[in-house]
Specification:
CATH topology of the largest domain: Aspartate Aminotransferase, domain 2
CATH architecture of the largest domain: 3-Layer(aba) Sandwich
Largest sheet: 7 strands, mixed
Number of helices: 13
Helix content: 25-40%
CATH superfamily of the largest domain: Type I PLP-dependent aspartate aminotransferase-like (Major domain)
Structural class: alpha/beta
Bound molecules: pyridoxal-5'-phosphate
Number of domains: 2
Oligomer: single chain
Shape: globular
Radius of gyration: 22 Å
Strand content: 15-25%
CATH class of the largest domain: Alpha Beta
């Protein structure tokens, strides 16, 4: 479907691209390109040329509702006018600067972020990607505690740099990578819909946590340093730990002298309906937070935040982390403006409204279609887990793919996610600026897609 406004190659000066040329480039000059490889076959998907608000447009002029917010970096909306203005202004003033001298946008960003952080967090350093924040947070925790072992959720994902972050991304098969970092181990994800211990919350009394730490204690190679996790596990299938879990977890960590690192790449800065994802549980404040994705409004800047006491201890032991572009005025000015937008435009409030509307629609659909097994997540980080059979909870991987293809064809994009090899969760991450009209349009496409898939599924089932 082609919506009202079409953008073509001629909108970008000097760029002419058709599908044939794109395929040629991908096959001749890119890797990995084989359809079977991860991140291969991209040339067969829409090739994007324009974005604005909640929409992206491909080279054929077809517009899509972007319910994945780019790679989650456009949660403020693509080309937010205030972001465009600050980028234009800064690029004409000072784009890049040495990180061995301070610059004004960098200082302003430290102050703005420091004032937003919940106490006792106050200090920040800047890097360029989410993976960077994980590497730097782990090093920070190790230098501050003197420990080494790091624990993470067994359905967690924390990035794709080759060594440490892949080792902590247990939801991907980490044995696929060339080498795994020592002193990294997983604990059970509190995935209540498919409890790894086959128990039910709240009568389970968090046994997954207890069992996990009993094993972890036996496996530690040294003094343990930290646990790292997402407040909602996004790529792992939008898994939301049950109420009270983070409190119990923090107690278990404190008892062992371990720090809590919250990877807020996907949950921070308004997306879950609060400024930070961990704030849904009162009384829990992590020791270290990583911010990335829409921090910077689409430009690559990330932050590691911690307390003055932890920073002091780590620095005493030689801690530092930086990148050549980490403190560029352009990125820092974008970082500051993205924080201003989150606060001034009440992005958290907008996310809460979006959650209400989307969940209400899926709750209605769940009455009609058996394949809707679970509806979860918060704000604009929402997951709908699809099953072939509600009682047995058989994962509906191929139906999920059918629904994805139908939606893509009708002009709606999102990503399929799941836990440890499953691919049965529709993950919806609309920008927080998505209008009710855009939401309703996406929901109507999803309704039709699910109706088609359900019908086909029931027929197939009857034929067995
Ligand atoms: C929770 C989480 N942490 C870290 C990362 C890595 O971020 P980046 O791709 O910017 O390195 C991701 C990437 O999707 C993520 O989802």
């Amino acid at each position: 479907m082609i919506l009202s406004r079409n953008y073509t190659n001629s909108d970008i000066k000097g760029v002419v691209m058709d599908e044939g040329h794109a395929k040629h480039i991908a096959r001749k000059w890119m890797f990995p390109a084989a359809d079977t490889s991860y991140m291969g076959g991209l040339e067969n998907r829409p090739i994007l040329i324009h974005s604005k608000g909640c929409a992206v447009t491909d080279i054929n002029g077809k517009e899509y509702l972007d319910f994945q917010s780019g790679q989650m970096g456009a949660a403020l909306g693509h080309q937010h006018p205030r972001m465009v203005a600050v980028i234009e202004k800064t690029i004409n003033t000072m784009t890049h600067a040495t990180n061995t001298m301070l610059n004004v946008p960098r200082l302003r960003l430290h102050e703005r972020l420091g004032k937003l952080l919940p106490k006792p967090l106050s200090k920040s350093l800047f890097l360029v990607s989410g993976s960077d924040t994980i590497e730097a947070s782990v090093d920070l925790a190790r230098k501050a505690t003197g420990g080494t072992d790091i624990l993470g959720f067994h359905a967690g994902l924390h990035g794709s740099t080759s060594y440490l972050t892949r080792s902590l991304s247990f939801n991907w098969e980490r044995r696929k990578h060339s080498i795994v970092a020592p002193a990294t181990a997983s604990i059970m994800t509190p995935y209540c819909y498919r409890c790894p211990l086959k128990l039910s919350f709240p009568t389970c009394n968090f046994q997954c946590l207890e069992a996990s730490f009993e094993l972890a204690d036996a496996n530690f190679m040294s003094q343990p340093a930290a646990f790292i996790g997402e407040p909602i596990l996004s790529a792992g299938g939008v898994i939301q730990p049950p109420d009270g879990y983070l409190t119990k977890l923090q107690l278990a960590l404190k008892a062992r002298g371990m720090l809590m690192i919250m990877d807020e790449a996907q949950t921070g800065l308004g997306k879950t309906g609060k400024l930070f994802g961990f704030q849904h549980e009162t009384g829990v404040t992590p020791d270290i937070i990583g911010l990335s994705k829409h921090f910077g409004g689409g430009l690559p800047i990330s932050a590691v935040c911690t307390t003055a006491a932890i920073a002091k201890k780590a620095v005493k032991h030689g801690y530092f982390a930086t990148r050549s572009h980490a403190t560029d005025p352009l990125l820092c000015a974008a970082g500051e403006e993205s924080l201003n937008i989150v606060v001034d435009e009440d992005m958290a409030g907008k996310a809460r409204q979006i959650e209400k509307r989307v969940k209400a629609a899926f709750n209605r659909m769940a009455k009609e279609f058996e394949i809707i097994g679970d509806i979860r997540g918060r704000g604009v980080l929402l997951g709908i887990e699809l099953v072939e059979n509600r009682e047995k909870k058989t994962p509906a991987n191929s139906l999920t793919k059918q629904i994805f293809n139908y939606c893509l064809d009708k002009g709606l994009i999102f990503q399929i996610r799941g836990t440890r090899g499953l691919q049965n969760v529709i993950r919806l991450v609309p920008p927080m600026t998505t209008t009710n009209g855009e939401l309703d349009r996406a929901l109507s496409i999803l309704y039709d897609a699910i109706r088609h898939a359900s019908k086909r599924h029931l027929i197939a089932f009857e034929n067995i």
